[in-house]
Specification:
Layout (H helix, E strand, L loop, with lengths): L6 E7 L4 E4 L5 E14 L6 E13 L7 H8 L5 E14 L6 E15 L36
Parallel strand pairs: 4-6
Antiparallel strand pairs: 1-3, 1-5, 2-3, 3-4, 5-6
Length: 150
């Protein structure tokens, strides 16, 4: 039986990433993310955007991929990003009552920063944000997006 656990999203950060550093040197960026689904309003007949809120986690990996560092450095609330990842069901016991709790989270495997920065330090415009943060291939599409070095 085949299995596939892959998520691809384009959306916006709903808050600045929350960074946690562990005693062993590991790091995770907790990201609030929103994507829109479209549906037809049955009463008005008009199409409307329906937001879906998703929790993402980007880790610094032992293999050299430092996604948490990249997210911390480049992404802020309101910025748009393309994310590839996989679903993970996180489970824990509640602090107050000890009841089992769970939620579905997307663990980020790749991230591309979309859009431009408004202004850099000193008020001067900066170049576009780097695009393929988790990939090492050239975009080749003439979109002017630069790579983030690893």
């Amino acid at each position: 039986m085949a299995n596939l656990n892959k998520v691809m999203l384009i959306g916006r950060l709903t808050r600045d990433p929350e960074i946690k550093t562990f005693s062993n040197g590991g790091k995770v960026a907790n990201i609030g993310f929103a994507v829109n689904n479209r549906r037809k309003n049955q009463q008005s007949g008009q199409w409307e955007e329906v937001p879906v809120w998703v929790d993402l986690k980007a880790f610094n990996r032992e293999t050299g991929r430092k996604l948490a560092d990249l997210v911390e450095k480049y992404l802020r609330k309101g910025q748009q990003a393309y994310v590839e990842g996989h679903l993970v069901l996180e489970e824990w016991a509640g602090k107050e009552d000890g009841k089992k709790q769970s939620k579905m989270v997307v663990y980020v495997d790749e991230v591309e920063f979309l859009g431009r920065r408004e202004e850099g330090p000193g008020g001067s415009p900066e170049a576009e944000e780097p695009a393929p943060a988790g990939k090492s291939k050239k975009s080749g599409g003439g979109d002017g997006m630069d790579e983030v070095p690893f």
